[in-house]
Amino acid sequence: MRIFVTGASGLLGLNLCLTCTDQGHAVTGLVNSCSLQGVPFDVHAVNLLERGKAKAVLAEAQPEAIIHCAAIADLNVAEKDPKLAERVNGEVPGMLAEEARRLGIPFIHISTDAVFDGRVSAYVETDPTNPLSVYAQTKLQGEKAVMGAYPDAIVVRTVFYGWSLSGKRSLAEFFINNLEDGKPLKGFTDTSFCPLYVEDLAEVLLQMLKADLHGIYHVVSPEHLSKYAFGVQLARTFGFNPDLITPVEVQHVIRGATRSNTLILNPDKIQRALGHPLPSIESGVRRFYQRWQEGYPARLTHFGG
């Protein structure tokens, strides 16, 4: 299958492109400000806000599916420039979904668990949304734009971690970088989330394409834990000192964009659709560690332009 991936240099985008390639798919990856070199797939540098250029690359690639990963994901950047966040996170997904509908091909839009406010546990897809930050508000706007333009599209609400191009994009990398250097750090005890390892997520996205699914899905680990507990689990798996992580409450540390502390999503819908449970947190952490042992982080770093 010819798969078109936006945000190909991002945490999910790069791992997804490599997973697609490993499974024998032909990939066209779009990047913006961060270039790639030596990757085993086609790369085009395009600003998705330049719609004419984006559509021209799409026409040239002749994809059989589009997976839209690109976004302004930094909460504080979105807060500082809400108009840009609205254009990138809110409007671009609708434009791409419209192109996918016109081409008659599947479209997957990557959204976020942050469309909820965290006041309910185990959110299902039909629960009311209430995003708290500009980032989350614009991501919800993007969801609505996608479903309005292409009702047969897939919207994936998720939260993930893994190895990235810079080595500094995910919470797990933050923990490992500090733990490996023996530096003390803080872990939040009053947060809960359902993190999915990024290569597990990439494989699920391809399974969703194969199953010809439509609609909104929560694609997260079926388990949840605090960010402090997540850090401790990483430390123990990697053989680092978990005592370097001090348990703290997020309200005493974080400033800036308002965010939901407790985001527990229910993945039953996607598990029923695929006929199997999503990977556990423990199995994801083990896979994250195995990739570290294999030198995977260094391989990604070498792709940096």
Explain the overall architecture.
- The protein is of the alpha/beta class.
- The protein has one domain: NAD(P)-binding Rossmann-like Domain (Rossmann fold, 3-Layer(aba) Sandwich), CATH 3.40.50.720.
- It is 43% helix and 14% strand.
- The chain has eleven helices and eleven strands.
- The protein has helices at residues 11-22, 51-61, 75-80, 82-103, 134-149, 171-180, 198-210, 227-238, 268-274, 281-294, 296-302, and strands spanning 2-6, 26-31, 42-45, 65-68, 107-110, 154-157, 160-161, 185-188, 196-197, 215-218, 245-248.
**Secondary structure category:** alpha/beta
Average pLDDT level: 95
Q: Could you please say which CATH topology applies here?
A: Rossmann fold
Q: What count of helical segments does DSSP give?
A: 11
Got a strand count? 11
Q: β content, as a range?
A: 5-15%
The 3D shape can be described as globular
Q: What is the CATH class?
A: Alpha Beta
Major beta-sheet overview: 7 strands, parallel
Report strand order across the widest sheet.
Answer: 3-2-1-4-5-6-10
SSE string, helices as H and strands as E: EHEEHEHHEHEEHEEHEHEHHH
Helix-strand blueprint:
Elements: E1 2-6, H1 11-22, E2 26-31, E3 42-45, H2 51-61, E4 65-68, H3 75-80, H4 82-103, E5 107-110, H5 134-149, E6 154-157, E7 160-161, H6 171-180, E8 185-188, E9 196-197, H7 198-210, E10 215-218, H8 227-238, E11 245-248, H9 268-274, H10 281-294, H11 296-302
Parallel strand pairs: 1-2, 1-4, 2-3, 4-5, 5-6, 6-10, 7-9, 8-11
Helix pairs in contact: 1-7, 4-5, 6-8, 8-10
